[in-house]
Each structure stands twice: as C-alpha cells, then as structure tokens.
Amino acid sequence: MDRKVELEILTLTASQYKNDTFVVLLGETEGNRQLTVTIGAVEAKAILLHLRGIRSPRPLTHDLFMAGISVLGASLLRVLIYKIDEGVYYSYIYLKRENEIIRMDARTSDALALAVRAGCPIFIYDILLEEEYRRLKGHEEKEGISLGALREQLEKAIKEEDYEQAARLRDEIRQRDRNQ
Questions:
Q1: Residues 6+ apart with CB under 8 A from 77
Q2: How much is the pTM?
Q3: For residues 3-25, b (16+ Cβ closer than 10 Å) or e, as one string?
Q4: Could you report the per-residue pLDDT of 18-50, keeping only the tens digit for each?
Q5: Do residues 151 and 177 lie in contact, with contact meaning Cβ atoms separated by under 8 Å?
Q6: 30-40 burial, b if ≥16 CB within 10 A, otherwise e?
Q7: In 10 A of CB 2, how many CB atoms?
Q8: 47, 58, 72, 118: least CB-packed within 10 angstroms?
C-alpha cells in the first residue's frame, strides 16, 4: 500500500464525554503528526497498568494472550493500523514464530495493549495518518475558523456520539485557549 510510519503512545486520558471511554493520543516518532483513538476502560486499564509497571496478582487478558504467544514459541513483532472507516480503527498484529510471520486481525485497543507489553513498534500507513492529521488540522485551518465555530462543532460531535471527533475538537480548543 503505502509507506508505514511508526507511532508511539503520547498520552492516555479519560474521555470527558462518555463514561468508561478513554482517548489514546498517538504521535509519530519522527514527526509532529498525531491522532486519537478512543478505547474502552478495560484496554485503557491494561495499558496504564503496564506503562506504570503495576503487575496484577493474576494475569489480565492481555498478559494471558502474551503468555500464550510465548508458550507457542512466537513473539509479537509489530502492530499495524491498516484502515480507518467512519472513526473506527482497524489493526493487525504480526507474530513471528521461527521463520514464519503470522498476521492476525485485532481491535486497535487490544493491539495497543499488546504492543506496550511486547515493547514492539506500532505502525500506521502514512496515507491514513496524513488523512486523519489533515482532518484534525482542517478544523483549525478552515478559512480561519473561529473558536466559537469549533465549540459548535464539538457540541455537534457530542450529540452525534462521534467521540473521536469530539476528542480532537476538545484538544484543539484547549490548545487554542492556551495560546491566547
């Protein structure tokens, strides 16, 4: 398809708009483009616990999956966000066992939780990152769109339950408020 860009998790925050929903901010490792992914509470907890070095007394689902991969003689090689459709991110996880590469479809939230455990890279196709980045930046660059117009778009996104777009708009409003 296109060249791949490596991403890293920059922040993980609770959504202000929906209970049990979190927003992961991903940024390219060699650039300034970013995108947000909305995930559930279980996956957010799994990521946060691992990033903070907190071990559960019993294996959590993602820990169990990683143990299963290891027992089968494989390792998690990388994660690839390969598609974005109406705000839903689609990902593959790539496993390596001996000389074999195994690709599995995964929810992006689960793929991210596994990637932090494996310490493996997270990739996205450059064209997808550019489209999402432009969509986010388009809100601020559209013919000098005002802060008030951004707030109206935020309210509309919330009413339509487009929480990823709402998170992007919220972040843009916050950034503009800081810069004023």
A1: 94, 95, 96, 101, 120
A2: 0.75
A3: ebbebebeebeebebeeebbbbb
A4: 788 999 999 999 998 998 899 999 999 999 999
A5: no
A6: eeebbbbbbbe
A7: 11
A8: 58
